[in-house]
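=== RUN LOG ===
request id: a7f3
mode: sequence -> structure
chains: 1
length: 114
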Amino acid sequence: MASDITITRAEGTWVVRAGGAVLGESANALELHEGDMPPVIYFPRDDIAMAFLDRTDHSTHCPKKGDAAYYSIVTKSTTLENAAWSYEDPKTDAARIKDHLAFYKSDTVAVEQL
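=== RESULT ===
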C-alpha cells in the first residue's frame, strides 16, 4: 500500500508567532501533505526559540507518521497548551520531519509565509 504522505521543501521563508513574539523563522521549513488534510508546515528545531516551549505529557499516535510529542508555548501572558508537536522518531514515510516542529494555527498562533 502506497503512502499518501508527501513531504517537500516549503517554498520561501516561514514564520511562527505567538503572544506577540516571533518563535521562529525558517527558509528550511518542510511542507507535509497527507491525504485530503490541509498541508502542515514543519520548522527545523534549530530555527525555533525552544526556550518558549515546554514539553508536555500529551502524546498521540498516527499509524503513518508515528508517535507525536507535544509542547506548550509559554508567552508573557499565558501558556498555550499542546500548541506544537513533533515526531521525534517518525516512521519511514515521514522520516524527513524528524527534528522538526509543527504548530496549531489559532487566534493566538500564526504560521505564515513571508
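=== NOTES ===
The domain at 5-113 is CATH 2.170.150.40 (Metal Binding Protein, Guanine Nucleotide Exchange Factor; Chain A).
The beta strands are 5-9, 14-18, 21-26, 30-34, 40-44, 53-62, 66-74, 79-86, 100-103, 109-113.
=== END ===
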